[in-house]
Amino acid sequence: MNSSEHVVGILLAGGKSSRMGGGDKCLRSLGGRPILARIIERLEPQVTGLVINANGEGSRFAEFGLPVVADSIAGFAGPLAGIHAGLEWVKSNRPEVRYAVTAPTDTPFFPADIVNRFLGELKGSRPLVVARSDTGVHPVVGLWPVELSTDLEDALRRGNRKAGEFVRQHSAIEVYFETTKVGGSLVDPFLNINEPEELSKADALLKEQML
């Protein structure tokens, strides 16, 4: 991480993974390793610390040696609840940190320079930054001021669970990322793995890359 700004990474693993058949899809194997291991390897050099947001028994992530924080908003309220939980953890455990970057744990090809790209776009009156690619805006891939945890909690308690709506309301800066090459193919850098077929496709891309 080149910037002097300290940033904590929040790894979002709190979803139900229903399209993958349940369980923790981030623990499924991709190229012979858990998807989560690849996410950590990609984000860890870019941040000063990592925390996993996941619900249920946290010990299933013990091998990664990272703190695990569950949603404090009940009812599987979606990724905004995970972001809120992560920001609250940062506020309590890393009070010197002003920003956290959020990464879903099913997007293994996100850019290796995403944090510095986000930090480079910070503007005083619009401190929330999110990713955009050819497939659209990715509101849960972003750089979040820790102080936004209060606004997030208010929104969630009012029943607003739509991440896209929240970032629009807060005039988020959108940073565009081009397609990335994996194996011999150009793919969206925020390609997410929701179904077994998508996992097989990503696995094939990685195998091609290693040839």
Notes on the structure:
The protein is an alpha/beta fold and 211 residues long. The protein has one domain: Spore Coat Polysaccharide Biosynthesis Protein SpsA, Chain A. The chain contains six helices and eleven strands. The protein has helices spanning 35-43, 79-93, 114-119, 149-157, 163-169, 196-210, and strands spanning 7-12, 29-30, 33-34, 49-53, 68-69, 99-104, 129-133, 136-145, 173-176, 180-182, 185-187. A seven-stranded mixed beta sheet has the order 5-4-1-6-8-7-9, sandwiched between helices. The protein has a two-stranded antiparallel sheet with strand order 2-3. A two-stranded antiparallel ribbon has the order 10-11.
Give short descriptive properties of this protein.
23% strand; 211 residues; 7-stranded mixed β-sheet; two-stranded antiparallel sheet; Spore Coat Polysaccharide Biosynthesis Protein SpsA, Chain A
